[in-house]
Amino acid sequence: MAVGVLALQGSFNEHIAALRKLGVKGVEIRKAAQLDTISALIIPGGESTTMAKLAHYHNLFPALRDFVKMGKPVWGTCAGLIFLSDKATGQKEGGQDLIGGLNCTVHRNYFGSQIQSFEAELAVPDLAAKEGGPETYRGVFIRAPAIIDAGPEVEILADIRVPSKKSIAEKEVAELQEEKADSEEKVIVAVKQGNLLATAFHPELTADTRWHSYFLKMVSEEEQALSISEEVLDDEIQPTKIDLPIF
Amino acid sequence: MSRNGVVTVYGNGAITEAKKSTFSVKVGLAQMLRGGVIMDVVNAEQARIAEEAGACAVMALERVPADIRAQGGVARMSDPGLIKEIKQAVTIPVMAKARIGHFVEAQILEAIGIDYIDESEVLTLADEDNHINKHNFRVPFVCGCRNLGEALRRIREGAAMIRTKGEAGTGNVIEAVRHVRSVMGDIRILRNMDDDEVFTFAKKIAAPYDLVMQTKQLGRLPVVQFAAGGVATPADAALMMQLGCDGVFVGSGVFKSGDPARRARAIVQAVTHYSDPEILADVSCGLGEAMVGINLNDKNVESAVGKGPTRSGIGQYSVLTGGFR
């Protein structure tokens, strides 16, 4: 199983490092033609406008949409979540292209600017049931989006309590008020719909690889369903690529 | 030391309130910027052009380095009103520069909700001896460096991202190459070093031992490293990426050129496809006039990188170039 990581911009190295820890080789994807060689795709965190622009320059969107339509497993983290959702609010002037597929509405930079970025222990019962380990997961949220509305077919894997309406609202009254007015105290931060997985936080920035193995199980299930003979990983021991430490 | 008898290493006597943002969150944003281009902009209109071109962040300034160089005088933090205006115009992260050692400028920038602060040698120095204690802030910092020792000292002070100093506002990439080569070269020397020799090496480059050891084990700086100072063309940007940087700052290079929108887009593409000469050739075509550029050997050109707290004798030692600078 070859897992591609969209390597236009952002934390693709971190995702490849996390996959390597699980003994899976991640392939950097920069061009449309490369999508044919992989059975699953991870869209990493980064600046979603930048990634959308770069995808647009090289005409990647039609190929990415086809990839999603074919039902191959795709996982988006942070910017990737925005890409996969059908609708996004809080976009730049003129909006941006999306891949779509996930029936939900995402708000970009929901929590505010970098000063409002945070870490939180998330309750993840589904993940813990499948992958074991503790009931909580340390989620790193960096200028993160949040899912403010999800369709009935979307399975919610994790949500987070927004501290209180006031503390966020006072910073960005104008921008967030309408959404805040009718929203609950909880926002959704991880979802699954069919073969699409999306997280608003960054599992690639923590040492806990459960989300990555969760996704890899989705990939192998899909491959078995299609009765593709699962290639045994030719784990050619490559010189370990240098990457950042995990804090 | 505080009243309850607990000794804290960092943040003692901090003026700011309790800190929520951890180092991993600070480094995290820098990691999200990897493989991207950060552009200097002086107004909301330029910020929009940069965002449309695919910049992953913008640096809000009153004057680009080339103008600071030409006009002289004291260069300070930009007007917070201007920074706010730029912040409202775009959805990508907005950075701003504070003078070296001027922690009140940094507090002001934090208060207006800036995403990253550049403690920059491009502005006039505010403190000859000390940098800002960046552990006291919730907002992350990026700092310049010329060599490994300087980079690790800045990281120990709390910088969550490092950029090379280069020679800002010249359009001449030579200094940036020198600094990247120096950092990368020292890391390569360090990697092949016996563990017993690291103590002396740390002393020689005047850097904290634990960070030197971490760098040795990782084989790279422990935070994201960008290139800056003199990048003017897509080829310059790709050169920096191939030398091992995580991304590129472009200062005067974009908006001092003939066709800023086009050049900005070309540099963004060059950073993503840095190892693909065909795409590089493609995006380099017909970009119009590049910024004029300054030759550093010119007698009346004064170097800005010489600036930095050096008086206390904390050296700028580089193993490659030898000796203190």
From TrEMBL, chain A:
GO terms for biological process: pyridoxal phosphate biosynthetic process; pyridoxine metabolic process. Pfam families: SNO. Keywords: Coiled coil, Glutamine amidotransferase, Hydrolase, Lyase. Its EC number is 3.5.1.2. L-glutamine binds at residues 46-48, 108, 142-143. GO terms for cellular component: cytosol; glutaminase complex. The active site is at residues 78, 202, 204. It is an enzyme of class 3 (hydrolase). It catalyses: L-glutamine + H2O = L-glutamate + NH4(+). GO terms for molecular function: glutaminase activity; lyase activity. Belongs to the glutaminase PdxT/SNO family. This is glutaminase. It comes from Thalictrum thalictroides (Rue-anemone).
Automatic annotation (TrEMBL), chain B:
The keyword Transcription regulation does not apply. Residues 23-228 form the PdxS/SNZ N-terminal domain. It comes from the Eukaryota. D-glyceraldehyde 3-phosphate binds at residue 181. The active site is at 97 (schiff-base intermediate with d-ribose 5-phosphate). InterPro entries: Aldolase_TIM (IPR013785), PdxS/SNZ (IPR001852), PdxS/SNZ_N (IPR033755), RibuloseP-bd_barrel (IPR011060). Transmembrane segments: none annotated. One of its GO terms (molecular function) is protein heterodimerization activity. Keywords: Pyridoxal phosphate, Schiff base. One of its GO terms (cellular component) is cytosol. D-ribose 5-phosphate binds at residues 40, 169, 230, 251-252. NCBIfam families: PRK04180.1, pyridoxal 5'-phosphate synthase lyase subunit PdxS. This is Pyridoxal 5'-phosphate synthase subunit PdxS. It comes from Thalictrum thalictroides.
